[in-house]
Queue: 2 jobs
Job 1
Amino acid sequence: MAALLFLLLLSISAVHADEGPYIGVNIGTALSAMPSATQVVALLKSQNIHHVRLYDADASLLVALANTGIRVVVSVPNEQLLAIGSSNATAAAWVARNVAAHFPTVNISAIAVGSEVLTSMPNAAPLLLPAMRFLQSALVASNLDKFVKVSTPHSSSIILDSFPPSQAFFNRSLDPILSPLLRFLQSTSSPLFLNVYPYYDYMQSNGVIPLDYALFRPLPPNKEAVDANTLLHYTNVFDAVVDAAYFAMEYLNVTHVPVVVLESGWPHKGDPSTEPDATTDNADTYNSNLIRHVINSTGTPKHPGIAVPTYIYELYDEDQRPGALSEKSWGLFDSTGLPAYTLHLSGSGLLLANDTTNQTFCVAREGADPKLLQAALDWACGPGKVDCSVLMQGQACSEPDDVESHASYAFNAYYHGMGMGSGTCYFSGVAAFTTTDPSHDTCLFAGRYFNFFSSVIIEHSIIMPYCCINCST
Ligand SMILES: *[C@@H]1O[C@H](CO)[C@@H](O)[C@H](O)[C@H]1NC(C)=O
Ligand SMILES: *[C@@H]1O[C@H](CO)[C@@H](O)[C@H](O)[C@H]1NC(C)=O
Ligand SMILES: *[C@@H]1O[C@H](CO)[C@@H](O)[C@H](O)[C@H]1NC(C)=O
Ligand SMILES: *[C@@H]1O[C@H](CO)[C@@H](O)[C@H](O)[C@H]1NC(C)=O
Ligand SMILES: *[C@@H]1O[C@H](CO)[C@@H](O)[C@H](O)[C@H]1NC(C)=O
Ligand SMILES: *[C@@H]1O[C@H](CO)[C@@H](O)[C@H](O)[C@H]1NC(C)=O
Ligand SMILES: *[C@@H]1O[C@H](CO)[C@@H](O)[C@H](O)[C@H]1NC(C)=O
């Protein structure tokens, strides 16, 4: 048994032996002011983004990506699936024009065939595997199959009963298509592409999934989800979904296909009445925590230490996407390249969306319960080791003498003292980020002049434990 597990881990990691864990970014182009290909590539370079996924194989973007070292997943749009799935010659022409013509100056790593075809275009599902096979044989014929993998991204909604993960299985009516498709992936050493959206899982769960569990925030031990069959502990939705995919594949006897998450993210804006959790803070928290989780090679409870490469959805806000406000607000940047928010990545050794403003403060959340604020203030000035002497009567920050102002001072001092690390501006939900300097009179908030902390490496950030809240009430 142990030997078998070892072999399995070995073979799963071997597929990505050429690279460690990595974060990529999806580049959607439904923008009214789409930046030019050179502007896109300049942004990618300035942000140290080394992996991207395109939704097509746009020639001007591919030309701009040449000789950059950036690895590229190109896509066959759903509209082209019919033609490619029904003609070997069309597939060969697609590969010649969109892959062979650019390789190796453009480091194309995979072809994503269609997008969520089994759920968004079920009628075309029978053509999916033929299209993949035709594209694969064209790659073989051009001697590119060793460099370029063929796969297809699935919605995680094809996995049913995904908790506990050990009991997850693929929608059985898809088995006739999925079973041979997974065998194809296994025989070509290609990954399973999965789109994982804890935001939607959370939204659709009617309160069953706690927001903290979706956002990778620390959960009190009694709220951690335990898989009763495996006794594995799940601390976030992302891991649970990825493991559900591993178990669902195992159920079909496929054990050697690694999961690559081709899309994941969180919208930073939404309709306040119907999408209240599409906020800058939540998007920042989700993406920052996701990046740290992936880069740290934590793996999942089922396959600890096995990296799950993940592509963030997405580079730009796409203002031309139809639908709710949140649909247009998944971007890390606006069309001019300004960050939608500053990711909090201190400690992950990664530079993405550098703090260009130097002005992020952590303050008491508007309307937060004063009792919870007091408990968090007591924690910050006590176990949190913030020097709160300026809050004493007669000192610079004693006025206004209310719990909200005092908590704001202490939260911000803690947040900057901890190097603005992810999870250090939380305080059980009563803290919030702001870019407005809260300093007043002679009461100066940390971060006012510069933040030399943002490059500090934090090994272990101390997160305020949940007990403080319970202790005081
Ligand atoms: C981000 O900031 C770090 C440290 O301040 C600096 O070394 C790096 O060059 C910056 N990266 C970008 C992309 O501006
Ligand atoms: C593509 O990227 C991989 C991983 O970084 C690297 O090993 C390989 O040499 C690159 N190929 C080309 C043609 O640049
Ligand atoms: C499809 O084309 C490839 C070359 O691109 C060839 O090797 C393969 O045999 C063809 N397959 C079929 C089913 O025609
Ligand atoms: C399973 O897939 C079938 C065929 O696509 C679909 O009609 C059905 O709604 C799916 N079942 C669930 C529970 O999602
Ligand atoms: C998986 O393997 C088991 C044991 O060899 C077999 O009984 C079962 O039918 C297989 N299932 C599938 C879907 O191939
Ligand atoms: C990173 O991984 C180590 C173990 O490899 C773990 O102890 C640590 O908590 C992880 N950090 C994060 C931020 O996940
Ligand atoms: C941010 O802080 C750095 C370091 O003190 C400083 O050099 C830079 O000019 C500041 N940037 C802005 C936009 O204030």
Job 2
Amino acid sequence: MTHASASTQPPVDPSAPLVWTNIILFSLTFLVAVTVVPWYGLTHGFPLSAWIVFGVFLAANELSITAGYHRLWAHRTYEAHWSVRLLFLVFGTMALQNSAWVWCSGHRRHHLNVDDEQLDPYSARRGFWFSHIGWMVREYPSGVENFTNIPDLRRDRMLAFQHRHYVLLALATNLGLPLLIGALTGHLWATFLLAGVLRLVLSHHFTFFINSLAHMWGSRPYSEENTARDNPVLAVLTFGEGYHNFHHNFAHDYRNGVRWWQWDPTKWLIAGLQFVGLTRKLKRTPVFQIQRALLAMQFARAENLLARAASTAAPTRIQELRQHIASEYESFLTAVAEWAKIKEQWLTEKKRVVVEHWEQTTFQLRLQELEQRLRLQRRRLRMLQAQLA
Ligand SMILES: [Zn+2]
Ligand SMILES: [Zn+2]
């Protein structure tokens, strides 16, 4: 776990003014969720209808933040039909994480300055509490609103409307919707407690985990240049956002769990909507680029293991392994250079003429061949690492 080290801006600066609305909101909803909700459940019981509304609202809130606020608006990883955007906006407002403008401008700053203790609004280097919730309960210089990095979103009339009427819309969705459904089903309080309060507290903290735990707990298969981690447990709680190491390295990809088997319902939703024509232009990172990042990390790890083994293993054996890794690395660099060359050729061809179908497939085949080469190399390196461990 990381700690705020030689920071000029301490995680808890007692002179930073408190944000009372947030403090009251977070503590009151949390207190009700851990006292009144279980008490009501034990004394009155919750009907199935209240549980269903709770589940639907929780999923709708989380997906609107992940697929809407995050992957659509903050990162523009795809385009969506207005009806989808409207739903994201309604349930994103209900998630009570501020307007899309505020959320996205903060998030873009987080990516640009990740881990910076002065510029990242929720830098994990300032500790768990700060990155989880602390950054919202005091007015820190790192959290000052600044919309210069969202010119695209400021042109969006739907988002402007949400920003302008945020408080009213947030109240209507958080109090109005659960109370209305509660009145219609005849279980006013039960619905309000589950689908209103408990839903809000869970959806808050599940999302907050991405800024805190997903920068502290998990693996870093793509890069160790920032604190972001891949963590399947968090992926389950956050509808796929737990693959945060991948996300910080390939933020323009509409997927966070890039492998087909990785739990990422948000990517399935976006891809599913494309199937019925409601989303389009889904951005994907080329397979080769992903493989290249994975391999570069494997080489770094192998080097570390080798350095560690140097004190115990026989010098001839170390020499042998070192040569082995060096030759693997050379063939890796060759593949990377070849890939760049093919890409360039393909692009010039594309510019010159409309690339014929057969030409396209030749290019694709050559690229696939290179991808396969890296895949095999990763397997060889894994075996090598196993020998060294
Ligand atoms: Zn992050
Ligand atoms: Zn992001």
